[in-house]
Amino acid sequence: MPYYDDIIEFEPNLDGTDLRIGIVMSRFNIDIGEGLLSACTEELKKNGVQGTNMLIVTVPGALEIPLALKRMAVSDQFDALIALGAVIRGDTYHFEVVANESAHGVALVQNETEIPIANGILTTDTDDQAIARVSRKGMEVAQVALEMANLQMKIDEIDL
Q1: Pairing mode, if any, of strands 54-59 and 117-124?
Q2: Which is it for the CA torsion 34, 124, 59, 91, positive or negative?
Q3: Could you tell me which residues are beta bridge partners of residue 21?
Q4: Is the dihedral of CA 144, 43, 30, 55 positive or negative?
Q5: How far apart are CA 106 and CA 101, in angstroms?
Q6: C-alpha span between 138 and 54 (Å, rounded)
Q7: Which of 20, 37, 100, 33 is nearest to 63 (CA)?
Q8: Rounded Cα gap, residues 102 and 30, in angstroms
Q9: Rg of the chain over all Cα atoms, to the nearest angstrom
Q10: pLDDT at 1 over 50
Q11: What's the count of helices (H) and strands (E) in the chain, helices before strands?
Q12: Crossing angle of helices 30-46/127-157, nearest 10°?
């Protein structure tokens, strides 16, 4: 068995004390969005994020989320960002366009700006599927944002 005592490893850290979190929520499928937002902000507060260190903005739909995220990311005011919304399959190809392009846009902003973005845009076949995922997904994206913000800071501090 290899010996790894000399290797540096960072454990997951969900401490939100002094972290600044930006949240962008789509108003399309507003009930789902607000459920995600409630679970998300509850988890952020549970982990030490102060309400005054959170900014929540809303946009019309999932396709507008990446633009708002980009503006927030380049402002240098946030340690992590969160995207919230729901794209629910309908009878047309529009679902695929919105689901794929919003996910692509979120990933692009994260990679371009190096600000962690937790993607909480649900893509489901039905309203019931979205409702069933609201609480868990809202909590998970909050945890992802906190963990990644803390990881970025630790990586920046390391001196090998």
Answers
A1: unpaired
A2: negative
A3: 54, 80
A4: negative
A5: 9
A6: 15
A7: 100
A8: 17
A9: 17
A10: no
A11: 4, 4
A12: 40
Rounded distance between C-alpha atoms, residue 55 and residue 8, angstroms: 34
Highest mean pLDDT among 90-94, 95-99, 118-122: 118-122
pLDDT tens-place string over residues 42-59: 999 999 999 999 999 999
Tokens at 4, concatenated? 């790894």
- Known active-site residue 94: yes
The string of DSSP letters for 88-112 reads E--SSTHHHHHHHHHHHHHHHHHHH
Among 27, 46, 71, 94, the one annotated catalytic: 94
Distance of CA 109 to the CA centre of its chain: 12
Q: Which residue has the tokens 């102060």?
A: 50
The residue to which tokens 């459920």 are assigned? 35
